[in-house]
Amino acid sequence: xxxxxxxxxxxxxxxxxxxxxxxxxxxxxxxxxxxxxxxxxxxxxxxxxxxxxxxxxxxxxxxxxxxxxxxxxxxxxxxxxxxxxxxxxxxxxxxxxxxxxxxxxxxxxxxxxxxxxxxxxxxxxxxxxxxxxxxxxxxxxxxxxxxxxxxxxxxxxxxxxxxxxxxxxxxxxxxxxxxxxxxxxxxxxxxxxxxxxxxxxxxxxxxxxxxxxxxxxxxxxxxxxxxxxxxxxxxxxxxxxxxxxxxxxxxxxxxxxxxxxxxxxxxxxxxxxxxxxxxxxxxxxxxxxxxxxxxxxxxxxxxxxxxxxxxxxxxxxxxxxxxxxxxxxxxxxxxxxxxxxxxxxxxxxxxxxxxxxxxxxxxxxxxxxxxxxxxxxxxxxxxxxxxxxxxxxxxxxxxxxxxxxxxxxxxxxxxxxxxxxxxxxxxxxxxxxxxxxxxxxxxxxxxxxxxxxxxxxxxxxxxxxxxxxxxxxxxxxxxxxxxxxxxxxxxxxx
Length: 494
Hints:
Layout: E1 2-6, H1 11-21, E2 28-30, E3 43-51, E4 54-63, E5 66-75, H2 84-101, H3 115-126, H4 128-137, H5 143-160, E6 167-174, E7 176-177, E8 189-190, H6 191-194, H7 198-219, E9 222-230, H8 238-251, E10 259-265, H9 272-280, E11 285-288, H10 295-300, H11 307-319, E12 325-331, H12 338-351, E13 355-360, H13 368-372, H14 381-397, E14 401-406, E15 417-421, H15 428-435, E16 439-443, E17 448-452, E18 459-463, H16 468-473, H17 475-492
Parallel strand pairs: 1-2, 1-3, 6-9, 6-16, 7-8, 9-10, 10-11, 11-12, 12-13
Antiparallel strand pairs: 3-4, 4-5, 13-15, 14-15, 17-18
Helix pairs in contact: 1-2, 3-4, 3-5, 7-8, 7-17, 8-9, 12-14
């Protein structure tokens, strides 16, 4: 499709909104008002011009051989209100698409990752009641999603209020998995291909951790949470896990932080030996992530484990004393139906984990599912939406609460990912990373440190090399980048 942008700088938001309704079409953005376009092409025109002392907003949608248009005249003072002209233009475009496509996405015109931050900012500006009303009338979010957002915002506040100016969290990346899932776009390598690289990777990762700990100590920072993710950290051997966790526990004050999470992730990597290492070093929270409890769906997405292995891994962890276990699920997977997803939810609730994180399938550009396996798979937005509705109903009834929420591009149905937990079992790290509350020091391939100015909303990023082989071959360069952390804090303190 072609997006014509005329007289305004809001091309990014207009592109994202077009993707809400046409998620799999390539968008060509042009800035010539009269650009020639084929008759069969989907064309969106968005324009703003000053006329007779007012502002004229225009939107046109040419789709399927039909033309729809909308115009609105507003005072010039709209330009003085932050993002108000952009919002009005987005509402007009949304309404044309909704009329033409016959459905209204539940998050309205919102396309950003962090809707809870937006609702909180609105509540601070205009009060909660008016913010909720504006969320629905101004951004076209449904009452159902607005209620979910308000509850989530209230719940995560219990964690946000614990963060201080000197707070930080630690993230450690283990970019290896037993296999690569069809939907995955993360920088991770299958163990079959990377096994020779793993010992050196762990050695160098420990060196980076030691360097990072020294920087944090010199800056007088206070550790709030530790999260070891990936990838699948439990693809490491028990010996490699012991080496990694020993380094973390020796150089970081983990005994005084509130959360120490390790993603056990794939059930087929959960063994007594690995779990024993996690217990030995005081890990307080683990994830055992089935994604689905239907074997045919597991096969569709390229997972080698079975539902029975998930159940066995969970019971093993329970028997070894793990009393804070999370399970990840994905709504909208290939071959899954509302009925089979219902079975997944039932089996997970029977296991009785402390938290359940429910994702919506996102068809990322670099995923195998998007690149080579779309034939025969048609994403079911309506089905995914019903899955999330039933999830909320069942989890609320079982005593779970939503405590963090975020969204991704190219999600089926433009829906959301939500972390649910029983009271007292929220993951601090998940809230801090999503809200960008304080500094996240990140180590390992593909990791991104986010350095937060304690006196403002300013956030600076320091990127590690993406791929494990780069991380190994250019490690000294990356260690030098960690010194930028101190430089940024010195800049913030000026």
